[in-house]
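Researcher: I'd like a structural prediction for the single chain below. Treat it as a standalone chain; there are no partners to consider.
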Amino acid sequence: MKLIGSLTSPYVRKTRVVLAEKKLEYEFVLENVWEQDSTIQQYNPLGKVPCLIMDDGGTLFDSRVIVEYLDTLSPVCRLLPQSGRERAAIKCWEAIADGVLDAAVAITIENVRREPQYRSQAWIDRQYGKIVAALDHMNRSLEEQPAFCTGVNFTLADIAVGCALQYLDLRCEELAWRQDYPQLQRLEEKLRTRPSFISTAPPRN
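Model: Treating it as a single chain, here is the predicted structure.
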């Protein structure tokens, strides 16, 4: 398999963490979708990463689709139940964590890719509002859990939340989320020591 992506994309990182936890071998192909000579649309018509090229040459895109497929390839470290309410709960955690990422990426694009005179502070503030509301919800939900997002077992929910929190550290440092969300801090400190998170940590640039 080949995974097309960047080192700083949090969606790519989520996929790489899953690959590491599942102990699946793959080739990582770096791609900058912002470059004019990017070839990503040959594999994903939306021009986004991650994109997984499977052994038979077929492609999958969108991190949520990819990680769900990867979990079926090996019995090692099952990250999603096959069905039922627990599976739905884990997918909800992933959805809200990805919502945090969507808002943080939107802020980053507004601040970095748009000319200063065209930036909208109202738009940026709206995205911050989404992040804060999501962090508050996740922190309150964790007060009832002894170890991980959905109980005592490490799942895709924890991977998604961990990647979201660490992306905020990378791109939205001004939030200083740890001081307001102790349950999320506890979880993040636990996740950051896992080899899968250590090996996929993005460069700080």
